[in-house]
Amino acid sequence: MTTVTRGTTGPILLVLFLAAAATYAAGTPEGTAWVESHGYKGCILLENGDVRVVLDPNLGGRVIEYSLKGTNAIYMDPAQDGRMWQPGEPTFDPTGGRCDIGPEEIIAPHPELMLGKWTAAITGPRSARMTSVRHAVTGIQLVRDFRLDKTTSHLLFTQTIRNISGETKRYFHWGRTFAVGGGIFAMPLTPDSRFPQGYINYGPGPVINYRPPQHPNVTVRDGFFVVTGEPPLPQYGIDSFAGWMGYITRSNLLFVKRYPVYPDRPYGEIPAPPAIIWYNKEEMCEIEPIAPRETIRPGKSVSFTEDWWLFPYPYPPDRNVDLKALNEFVDKKAR
């Protein structure tokens, strides 16, 4: 039996705690840790002073937290916390910072990629990778790499599509990030757009409307496509080669995505927009950069990178965003 003299317990425990903490810290690179979050074990944390990124490999290789000073910009349905999926079970629509591949209407079903368990690895300081199963139906394997900047909110996210089949495949990157609801979406439009109004509306049903009716919550103003509240139909395709989109949350955060655009290359969705937004009432907003269609030979791979930022930014009470100021802010800060 070990006897502890009265008065020494505190220092001994402190020494043991510090030793354990040092051992744990030494086990992962700077700004990384293995954590449990939203009911999921085996998640990866990337962090610097004010920013946290949590990656979940348990349900489709998602981002489940992207936060600045404790405020998460990613929408997570608490009813789904800890929910898992197994092949053969009914599918469902997961929340979080998801990602996918297209074309949506003709690609083979791939719930193993959207809902299945991925492998996860910490790859360096504030860096990680998640890798999907080798999916025989689509003939691909997906790899997602993340790197958080040392001091800012800049998150680099690259998805790689590997052709593991013996046939040429034609797919493309499709970001499907759920941001928290009730925000304001703004995106510069292409001046010589193929769409009469610079954007199209999906629905109702399979209809693609290239002259959607005007609505006070969906406007074109000062060269921007802007959604300030619940639209009459949730999904819009935006003809923009500006290479960025912004979303101002009610908690006074500006979520910016930048990504490469290719005006002279074919895009693979039916109306071929480079970006889509899906605004689900006041609950969530899906912000979706789309890459050009890629021809992927057997054994080859293609990659596409999204750059993310979070900034403090005032949510206007009247929802009337100063678009010139927003454009100047993004041009200066999100680089």
Task: Please provide a written account of the structure.
- The chain has helices spanning 9-27, 111-114, 323-333; strands spanning 32-37, 40-47, 51-56, 62-68, 71-72, 97-102, 119-124, 127-131, 140-148, 155-163, 169-180, 184-188, 199-202, 208-209, 218-221, 224-227, 235-238, 244-248, 253-258, 275-280, 284-289, 294-296, 301-312.
- The model is unreliable at 1-25 (pLDDT under 50).
- The longest helix is centred in the first third of the chain and has 19 residues, at 9-27.
- The N and C termini lie far apart (61 Å).
- It is built from three helices and 23 strands.
- A hairpin with a 5-residue loop joins strand 13 and strand 14 (208-209).
- Helices cover 10% and strands 41% of the residues.
- It is globular.
- By secondary structure, the protein is mainly beta.
- The strands form three sheets. A ten-stranded antiparallel sheet has the order 7-8-9-10-23-19-18-12-16-15, with helices on one face.
